[in-house]
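Structural prep section.
Before we set up the soaks we want a predicted structure of the protein with P-hydroxybenzoic acid in place, mainly to decide which crystallisation condition to try first. Input record follows.
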Amino acid sequence: MRLLPTALTLATALAAFTAIPAHAQAKLKVGLMLPYTGTFAALGTAIENGFRLYVNEQGGKLGGREIEFFKVDDESDPAKATDNVNKLIKRDNVDVIVGTVHSGVAMAMAKAAKESGTLLIVPNAGADAVTGPMCAKNIFRTSFSNWQPGYATGVVAAQKGYKKAMTITWNYAAGTETVKGFTEAFEKGGGKVVKDLTLPFPNVEFQALLTEIAAQKPDVVFAFFAGGGAVKFVKDYDAAGLKKTVPLMGSGFLTDGTLEAQGASAQGLITSLHYADNIDTPRNNEFRLSYAKQFKLQPDVYAVQGYDAAQLLGAGLNAVKGDVSQKDQLYYAMGKTVLPSPRGKLAFSAAHNPVQDFYIREVKGKENTNVGVAVKALADPARGCKL
Ligand code: PHB
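Run finished without errors. Recording the tokens verbatim:
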């Protein structure tokens, strides 16, 4: 006799079937919007490597979901940013966007994320507004606000007893906001910024500005540059003979991911940042080894920030078992998590910006070595954020 399924077994089968939610079957779509060309190209690659490293360490899944990547090269071009982010939001229909490096591009992304409700994790760009006036439930940052490393370096410069500083940077949000943070701390510590020099992003014609520094002879120069631009600036500063006469300081981006190319010109430079290469903790050592094995490269701060973007997403997804439609629970879990970052414990402010220690670093050989702490648990003031 053929066994006919009873109503009960049918119901059980149906329940079992419906218990596997659709979201657990589909891949999670992650949109990477990063610079893969231009002065920040290496930074974009390091962030992607870091993100992938964490995903790989989890067996290719976050919150039980396999990951499908969608990629856009944003070229660090704010004029193309809205179109670029909409490729991920509207065309690819991604669940989460991870990006980017450049503050101007990130502000356009934050606006689009806020309007569309898409989850955005910023793995570098420090634009103060992203966790200030533009802050939102669905926007998180695993890096820093521009104010933070500027402020920390200002504390160190004042402690060193420098009185008269000049600043030099690209004239865009990251440059001007970092200089503002530096100035706030340096002047609070008794110093005075006597002149701010700028050039348009991403120009590297520094000669006229270096001549001005040589003429004014301040006690210290504070610089924000990064990537290819930082390589050229540090070399030009040395070649102009200034390294011997006017100490050069910077937020740590000046010497991060750049030491191979900067060679002798970077030796001895003092910076401040939320990461140092030789933080001697099991977590950092394990991360550095794992990164070096997978990519045949040494990691830098950008790789750490990308890795932590994946950790943050993973922590949120675990709390909702991969179901990104449970937005409130997802964002709540992300905001409350404390990540075991290679940099140290990483917690988030109410505005979703890292609260973190800023290290004093000195360039020795090919490493930004940790020589002290500039400020412990530094939180961005999040001016203008209402959540
Ligand atoms: C930025 O534009 O926010 C930015 C870019 C490169 C860095 C840091 C900040 O290294």
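Observations: DSSP finds 13 helices and 15 strands in the chain.
Flagged for discussion at group meeting.
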